[in-house]
Amino acid sequence: MGTSASQPSPRGAGWRAVRRAYIEPDVGPSAAVTRIVQAMDKDFIAGLSGAPVARVLRSLLAHSSEVVVASGDQAQLVAVACSLREEVVETTAARRDASRFGEIALAAATQTVLASSRRPPGMPLARAFLGTYLAHLFAHIVGRDISRYVGRGRFTSIAEAGEFVHATEAHVVEEVNALTLAELEVAEEEEEIAQLLSDVVPRALEHLVREEGEDAG
Question: Which of 114, 205, 207, 213 sits most deeply, having the most CB atoms within 10 A of its CB?
Answer without folding.
Answer: 205
